[in-house]
Design brief:
The structure is a single chain. This protein has a 5-stranded parallel beta sheet, covered by helices on one side. A 4-stranded mixed beta sheet has the order 6-9-8-7, with no helix packed on it. The longest helix has 19 residues. It starts with 7 loop residues before the first helix and ends in a 19-residue tail after the last helix. The chain is built from 24 helices and 9 strands. By secondary structure, it is α/β, with parallel strands linked by helices. 23% of the residues are buried. The protein folds into 5 domains: 177 residues, Rossmann fold; 64 residues, Helicase, Ruva Protein, domain 3 (Orthogonal Bundle), CATH 1.10.8; 141 residues, Up-down Bundle (Zinc Finger, Delta Prime, domain 3), CATH 1.20.272; 88 residues, no CATH class; 43 residues, no CATH class.
């Protein structure tokens, strides 16, 4: 393929360490280790998409196998009769690149291991580059462990992943890990600006800044967007910010600032008019909400930010307007706006008409924007904040809170409960026994293993929070308690630690009985006749539970 016909992300892909941007520390460390011949068995690179993980892997492969040595690798021309060009083109016989997203099974890894038993054909090292390594199955990782820890001298592994948390710690510990950072906005802007000049493209600096913002620190994303920008308009016309916003689906932030001003003034018709213009530009409601949240952040923290610190999201004029307007807005109003906006973002996933939902959201904000700073209204706003916070916090699983039980839809069910069904439950142990009687195995398991009792009273059970507890436990237990007793029960979570679980109580009791039994004369007599004998268990349902 002619180099000039390649997309920019391939055409300007770094070929040596010096070409990399934003990863200087990583490059220097690897370079020094190769020069010192202290090469690890496996490298592990992690970071967001497009920051250079696979690129660095190929550069390492070239550096290890170049016939002229690492210092002789050319930035532009490949070495004659060397391995560098083949590695760069991903067609070298001794450098195998595998996409773990498509080859996830243990059989694929076993084939890889089998292939690794044979030395390199022509190069110094046989290198396996595995991209998206976190996609491998658990069995595949286990099959790889031994080879990874003690590979042959000629074999090196290079892993790349965007999800480091999904990789087993046993694998990570066998690798030399490098965390690749997002590319700084200033560095990325300079990089794509240089490429724009090399390509002879006409793109304004504001449009380039927009590309940097959208790419979020990814070089590959930035080059792909630049490719689109260079191909969109006639070569004689410069791509300005407004045209770039239309191409990439972004709208002018000045429109959003103007909309915010009219919200505070309570001018409903103007607010709706501006939003409809934004919507007509092809902006999705969720994108609008996210940009609105970003704007709220700037209003709240503009005094502690610099223009460069906004990641090129704002131009000079927008920065000035936000700074002037922020002095007129109470921080409490901004926080209240933020909470309502977050709530609306959740609503968008369940409503059928997102467009109408956004319009109602803006109308609600106008009423909130009329809040003044007198004492009475401050109190109302605080109460509103508490209401919103309570609503948001109710969605959090790990929150410690009192849970009130729902009434059944048909009250006549209560009258149908026969007296013989009613049970009197006075303790946790009795509750477990009732669960066992009614064959509620799941509830019995949770009560024994994951419940730490704080208080057990009539129609009230208080337990400490346990993350292992099934999310439907409270609902299921309260329903069954009503069925068994004919009465409503309240189950609450407490901040107190509570007692140890029933299962742990049994384990402690069993250990105590075993230790006591081992000291008895009967046990000693048994050992005399059967030296290999050992007491390993006791029956807690027998007389061992007595106090003798």
């Amino acid at each position: 393929m002619n180099k000039n016909t390649k997309v920019l992300a391939l055409k300007y892909r770094p070929q040596v360490f010096e070409d990399l941007i934003g990863q200087e520390i990583v490059s220097e460390t690897i370079l020094n280790s190769i020069k010192a011949n202290k090469i690890p068995n496996a490298y592990l690179f992690t970071g967001i998409r497009g920051v250079g993980k696979t690129t660095i892997a190929r550069i390492i492969a070239k550096s290890l196998n170049c016939k002229k040595g690492i210092d002789s690798i050319s930035k532009t021309d490949s070495c004659e009769n060397c391995h560098c060009e083949a590695i760069a083109n991903s067609n070298h016989i001794d450098v195998l690149e595998m996409d773990a997203a498509s080859k996830t099974g243990v059989d694929d890894v076993r084939d890889l291991i089998e292939f690794s038993r044979y030395g390199p054909t022509s190069a110094k090292y046989k290198i396996f580059i595995i991209d998206e390594v976190h996609m491998l199955s658990k069995q595949a990782f286990n099959a790889l462990l031994k080879t990874l820890e003690e590979p042959p001298e000629y074999l090196k592994f290079i892993f790349a992943t965007t999800e480091i948390k999904k990789i087993p710690i046993t694998v990570i510990s066998r690798c030399q890990r490098f965390d690749l950072s997002r590319i700084k906005s200033s560095e990325l802007l300079k990089f794509i600006k240089d490429i724009k000049d090399k390509e002879g493209g006409k793109v304004s600096d504001d449009a380039l800044r927009l590309i940097v913002k959208i790419s979020e620190g990814s070089v590959r994303d930035a080059l792909s967007l630049l490719d689109r920008a260079l191909l969109t308009l006639d070569s004689n016309v410069e791509l300005d910010l407004k045209s770039a916003q239309k191409i990439f689906g972004f709208f002018d932030k000045s429109q959003l600032i103007e909309l915010f001003e009219f919200i505070l003034k309570g001018k409903e018709s103007k607010v709706i008019e501006i939003y409809r213009k934004i919507y007509d530009q092809g902006i999705e409601p969720k994108v609008f909400i996210n940009d609105f949240l970003e704007l709220l952040y700037y209003f709240k923290n503009i005094n502690s930010l610099t223009l460069e610190g906004t990641n090129f999201s704002l131009n000079d004029e927008e920065f000035r307007r936000i700074k002037n307007l922020s002095d007129q807005i109470d921080s409490k109003v901004l926080i209240l706006f933020w909470q309502f906006t977050i709530s609306t973002l959740d609503e968008l996933s369940v409503v059928s008409n997102q467009y109408l939902s956004i319009e109602m959201f803006l109308i609600r904000l106008m009423h909130l924007g009329s809040i003044k700073s007198n004492d009475e209204q401050d109190i109302d706003m605080d109460n509103s904040l508490k209401t919103i916070e309570t609503k948001e916090q109710s969605k959090t699983v790990n929150q410690i809170k009192n849970i009130s039980q729902e009434e059944k839809s048909k009250p006549e069910i209560q009258t149908e409960i026969k007296s013989e069904k009613k049970s009197l439950i006075k303790s946790l142990e009795e509750l477990i026994a009732v669960c066992s009687k009614h064959r509620e195995v799941k509830l019995k398991y949770e009560l024994e293993k994951n419940v730490n009792l704080v208080k057990f009273e009539k129609n009230l059970i208080e337990i400490s929070f346990n993350e292992s507890l099934d999310k439907n436990f409270v609902k299921d237990l309260s329903s069954k308690l009503f069925e068994w007793t004919g009465e409503r029960w309240i189950i609450t979570f407490s901040q107190l630690k509570g007692e140890i679980s029933v299962e742990n109580k049994k384990k402690d009791l069993k250990k105590l009985i075993i230790d006591k039994s081992k000291k008895s004369q009967i046990y000693q007599d048994v050992l005399k006749n059967f030296p290999d004998a050992e007491l390993i268990d006791v029956d807690l349902n027998g007389k061992e539970n007595s106090n003798d």
